[in-house]
Amino acid sequence: MSRGESATPLARVRGLGSAHHGGHHWLEERFTSVSLVLLSFWLLFSLVMLPALDRGTVNEWLGSAWGAVPMALFVITAFKHGLDGLKVVVDDYVHEDGTRVGIHFFLTMAAIAGAAVSLFALAKIAFGAN
């Protein structure tokens, strides 16, 4: 009798243990969370310190390295963190392998597209090609 055939639930899981790959994802989520908190504080502080919130002032701010670089980090980190969170939800609630892989692919492509469009818009502002 192979493991899992006519065995009790306890017998089926005994000895299987951890897959040893969840720790990396857990730690990565914590790093992106802390990064987003710090970058959110930077963003709020920066916006409060601007003399005005009109288009010209914001464009000038994002045209500097002190505005564009942290904003690019914010965009990348936000999309990465969001993607990781959505993948965890899919892993928890979608049990069919093919469906789960398809949803992961769609989510990854959507996150890449969203981040690319955001970074393109930021680059246009930063390099003055409005």
TrEMBL record:
InterPro entries registered for this protein in UniProt: SQR/QFR_C/D, Succ_DH_anchor, SuccDH_FuR_B_TM-su
Cofactors required: heme
Membrane-spanning parts: 31-53, 65-83, 103-127
Location(s) in or outside the cell: Membrane
UniProt keyword list: Electron transport, Heme, Iron, Membrane, Metal-binding, Transmembrane, Transmembrane helix, Transport, Tricarboxylic acid cycle
UniProt pathway annotation: Carbohydrate metabolism; tricarboxylic acid cycle
Record's bilayer topology term: Multi-pass membrane protein
Pfam family, one: Sdh_cyt
Protein name in UniProt: Succinate dehydrogenase hydrophobic membrane anchor subunit
Organism: Sphingomonas caseinilyticus
Purpose: Membrane-anchoring subunit of succinate dehydrogenase (SDH).
Quaternary structure, from the entry: Part of an enzyme complex containing four subunits: a flavoprotein, an iron-sulfur protein, plus two membrane-anchoring proteins, SdhC and SdhD.
Top-level taxon in the UniProt lineage: Bacteria
